[in-house]
Design a protein that fits this description.
Blueprint lengths: L2 H20 L4 H5 L3 E2 L2 H6 L6 E3 L20 E3 L20 E3 L20 E3 L20 E3 L20 E3 L7 H10 L4 E3 L9
Parallel strand pairs: 1-2, 2-3, 3-4, 4-5, 5-6, 6-7, 7-8
Length: 201
Amino acid sequence: MSIKKIIFVFLFGLFVQNVNAQNLLDSLTLSQQKVYKDLTIALNNSDSVFSLDLSKKKLKFIPEEIKKLPNLQWLKLSKNNLKDIPSWIGDLVNLQYLDLSNNDLVELPTSIGKLENVYYLGLNQNLIENLPHEMGQMKNLQVLEMWDNELQAIPEEMKNLHNLQVLELRGILFSNDEQTQIETLLPDTKVLFSPSCNCSN
């Protein structure tokens, strides 16, 4: 391969990265976008959809048609009947806000780690027992809300979440030692606990 071709490929790669980065709206602009609440209508305007609210729809699974919304960055799926999250959730790489609270989730797919642009992840009021190690790859995560789950521990890989500002763990019974361990793992994060259960596993 010639030097010119190598330089072209390199510059083209930078161009693609910049285009992808420009597709992401800042949080203020994102909050001002129209929120679609009907998937059919959203699909008819697929290129214009940045925010989609499918909460309170009695969903038992996440519609795969969501993948047809190329600019989707804000997704609310709270207060449904979801028992699991499909692995293709990791394909929604432009997501910045994801709310999965008030469902019946027991676990998350490892592909959740591909959502590197997510700054808010809502998992409140589920039945989650463990988090995948891959969550440590969500480098832009700022707020993780998990109150009222069945969480046993925090994976050590979460120490890599250097932008994590708030970790909400109230409603989950942790001993003093477990709370201390989590705080040590995330020294720059405000971790919110319920009073210690003073229990041992």
